[in-house]
Structures are given as C-alpha cells and as structure tokens.
Amino acid sequence: MLSKEDNEELFYQIALTYVAGIGAKTGRVLLEQMGSAKAIFNTPLKQLKHIDGIGEVKVKGFKDPEVMKMASKELDFVIKNGVQVIYQNHNYPSRLSNCSDAPLLLYYKGNASLDAAKIVAIVGTRKNTDYGHKICEDLVEGLQSLDNLLVVSGLALGIDAIAHKKCVQLGIPTVGVLGHGVDRIYPHNHKSLADQMMERGGILAEFPSETLPDRNNFPMRNRIVAGMSDVTVVVESHVSGGALITAHMASGYNREVAAFPGRVNDTRSAGCNELIRANIAAMITKAEDLVELMNWKKEGRPKAVQKQLFLNLTTDEQKIVDMLTTKDSVHSDELFHLTGLPSSQLAATLLQLEMQGIIKTLPGKHYRMY
Fold first, then answer.
1. Beta strands in 231-328 (DSSP E)
2. Fold of 4-80
3. Which residues, including other chains, have CB under 8 Å from residue 346's CB and lie 6 or more apart?
4. What confidence tens digit (pLDDT) does each residue in 45-70 have?
5. What CATH code is assigned to 110-293?
6. Which of 41, 125, 145, 321 is most buried (most C-beta within 10 Å)?
7. Is the pLDDT of residue 369 over 90?
C-alpha cells in the first residue's frame, strides 16, 4: 500500500509523460532541477518557462486539464491491475538509467529483478530458419548455469519468442519489452507465453495502457532492450531488421554486441555477418564464447593471487589493476573517471598493461583482467 505522499508523486510522474513537448531528456532536466514531479507541477509557469528546453509554448502543457485526466485514469489502471510503475530513484534499472534517451518511467508486471547481475538480450528475425531456432535454444541452454541471469527480448515472433520459451522451459527469468501498453499482448497468440513469463520474469513497457502496437513504437522498444542489458546477441537478422537497430543502439551505449555468423548467401544471416564484418559485434558460435567474451566464467579470478603476481606495477598501472580485479569488465570511460588520469596517459597505461599480458581489450572499449 502506497503512502499518500508516494501516491501523489506517482500520479505526477505519470502526468509528466503526458505533457505535450516534454520528452525524456527535458523531463530529466526538470526532475533534476525541481527534485520531484510534484514540485514541477507546483512551480509557477513563469518560472518553468525559463528552464532550458521549455519555453513559452511547452510550458502551457502543464496546465492542460487533459494531462491530469489521463494521469488519473492511468493511475487507476496500474493500481487496479497490480502494475509496477518504475521511475528514477524508484527501482529504475541501473543500466538503463545511464542511457541519455531512456524513458522517464516504465510499466512493469512481473517478479524478476531488472538489475540482475548478468543481463543478456537475445534478438533476431521474426522469420527464423531451423538453424536460427537451434542456435537460439542452444544459446539459452548453455547460459542456464550462470548465476543471477536475466534474458531480455521483445516478445515478437521468431527468435524473440524462441528465446523466451526456452527460458520458461528451463526456469530462467526472462522479460519481454513491449511496443505497446501492458494491458495487451501482441501478437495475441503470445498471451499464454507472457503469462508463463510473469511467474519468474515479466513484461515491461514505457507506453501507458490502451497504447496500440503501432509500427513506430518498436524502434523505441528496442532501445530499452539494448539499454538494460550487458550484451545484445543477434541470432539471425536481415541487414535492415529490427534486431540490427537494437545491436547498433547497444553499441552506441558502449555495451557488448555478439552475433552468430551464417552462410554468405543467406539473407537471414546477412545482418549478423555485416555486424561481424564491421567489427560492431564479436562473432560467437556457442554459449561458451559469450561467457568468455563477458568474462562470466564461474570460477572467477582469485584476487589475492593477482596482487602477488604484479608487484612491479607503476602507481597508475596499480590503480587500473585494482579496479579490474573487482569487476568482470570496465569501460574505458569509467576508468577515465575513476582513475582521474588524462586520456592520453590512460591509453598509454592500458596499452602497457596489455603488452605485459595483464589485461585484455574487449569489444566496445571494455577491459578485463586476463
């Protein structure tokens, strides 16, 4: 049961998404400056309009009676149907929160943690081949021994559904990200699958109830799949498929991308082959390759031994080694911020450690210990 204060903030968080012209980026600016959604709506319009990205036209949307009407209706829906509303500082997925275009809030029905230790997105064509069906099932089966794993996909026909079904069969938590509201399932014949997924996983959407599965919604859905995952795996895809959009988004977020290769004359593998050729995706042929790419080997690295092995490191080298021995992998941007080293000095130190065989470069500017 929500407190009155929490209920009010939830109402205003929902209302913010209905204000005309206020997208995710502007909404975040407002929330950062005002501290809460309720505070935004209680701020005089003459003050709001001077905030960067608002102006005279957009500010009028905060007094539109339809905004409050729609927010009230949506709040009634989520309370009645047990839908969790997730927003910044309120159970928002940590990986997704680092993406500049992440939605202001999410609607969630399910039980899985959206901050699982290991999150894998599995995507691909809606018209898979038998080859794609098999390697998708083999991939999921090969990942089932990983602790605290979550598999994410889009609940679409083809590869998405195959991945979700195999997860349900093996008891792996899996979440489907929707291109419409959580009040419906599209395609309709996936209703039973979605119900099974919610027992250990769930369904997730940025769209409010009564939102139809319009074509334009699905690329938006794809950025959530990419943004909340550690790695996006493309099983089969045409060169212009939605899975490639997800892969490019993941790469843009500096997340890992992996793809299964296919025959050069197979159009449903052409997208995967292109991702590999362009060095956007690492080529994998089995689950073990993905586990190695992500440095998710179960045995891990004994930290005490690492310290004994590297006794002659410089101060800068030791800083980097200390960080990498506590994580599976670290992005170069994070190393830059945490070490405080100038970018040129950081690059030189990383190269020196790699030449000594102490660290390894991963796709997407990530580094890990050997």
1. 231-234, 256-259, 282-283
2. DNA polymerase; domain 1 (1.10.150)
3. 332, 335, 336, 339
4. 989 988 877 888 888 899 899 999 99
5. 3.40.50.450
6. 125
7. no
